[in-house]
Amino acid sequence: MSSDTMDRVVVVGNGIAGLTAADTLREAGFDGELTIIGDEPHPAYSRPALSKALLLDGDDMSSHELPPTSHEATELLGVRATGLDLDHRLVTLDDGTALPYDGVVLATGSRARRLSDLPEELTLRGLDDALSLRSRLAGRPSVIVVGGGPLGMEIASGCLAAGCRVTLVSQGVPLTVQLGSYLADVFVKAALDMGLTIVETGSARLERHEGSARVVLDDGAVFEAETLLTAVGDVPNTEWLADTGLAAKGAIPVDSRGLVRPDVAAVGDLAAFPTPYGLRRVPLWSSAIEQAKVAARALVRGDDSSPLHFQPYFWTEQFGLSLKAVGYLPLEGEPSYLDGGPGGGPALMRWSRGDGTGVAAALSYRIPIPRLRRTSQAAS
Q1: Right CATH number for 8-111+234-304 from 3.40.50.720, 3.40.50.300, 3.50.50.60, 3.40.50.970?
Q2: Residue 57: its pLDDT value, please?
Q3: Exposed e or buried b for every residue in 302-317, given b needs 16+ CB within 10 A?
């Protein structure tokens, strides 16, 4: 199928993947009817800002905002896609509407994985989550964060900056699984210096006790706080595609152009695309953007479009540190220093792999986060 035979495209998902796909469709020459479906009532926004600037920027509430769109699509916000009919080319919505398409982009992303169905378990995935947490932090509650990945550590950093006493419960040393032990040690030291209490465990569960939730570790230790957040991964939003057979092991496999078939593209957190390490989901902001650009061009141009050549880009800010890394993580061993050195100060590092690939990482030291109430009290 080409743009000559494609009059209607439906983009299901209004995150950065859907937004980028819509803009790129126009840039690639599609001038037909374009519809974007978003289950949130908000316009597209920057999700990485939710656990970084939005929690810390005082009266500034604009850090998550994106520039105005240029795709001139019909936006249906606050509605959810409930089904996809591949034979009749229809997207069904939760209000009973059925939208016909010639091409469709599946970009429904993922949601926070939860440890329980307790209402006290908070997660940070969408804009409403971030605004709610920001409001809670104004009262400087005690906080427990379960999850030692980048999101959990960023949340813990933001809560500390708000003046809260914060305990982070992590399965092993925080950030080791995502970054490797060398960089993890750098961030853990900075976190401890800022007053974060870190508790390592093999597993943790949430349970209700006397009207509130608490965290119980595998050794029986119990932790309680006024606010409880979990950041333990994500779940691709593919349930609405159950009848299509497109999803495999919770993700949608795509080819090197982001296509499932000539009229169906899948991009962002729900897509597993070819990498040097096999088919993989790479749920990063930069990944969603690059996937969407390639897949949108493939919908319009078919085999004349270029395949995805993706180089992961990871960025985090927490505990007074900023890290930007290019390449596949995690990392093994110690780096070569191209600039700076171990022991503090800005540094540019490189890790080399036996297969000829490598990772470059820039670490900088930002102004320390404010501490309205400094504590290092251990939980018990």
Answers
A1: 3.50.50.60
A2: 59
A3: eeebeebebebebbbb
